[in-house]
Amino acid sequence: MFENDQDTVDVLLSESDEFRRLYDKHTALKTQVNDANGGVIRMEQLALEEIKKEKLYLKDQMATMIKNYRSVHA
Question: Can you list the residues of the chain whose pLDDT is less than 50?
Fold first, then answer.
């Protein structure tokens, strides 16, 4: 997800409960999307789109946290 920032992600996962919560939720939603797209689970298209939107929102929040961390610790 954040391959270029893996060191920062690792630090935030160990130091920030909020980042860890966002990361775990994003991972769970990613699994749901992959399962729905792969036919493992059935899901209405509208519900799938909502999950994708929430996943993107979480990713944006994590990206902001990574950016903020890097600006302070650069």
Answer: none
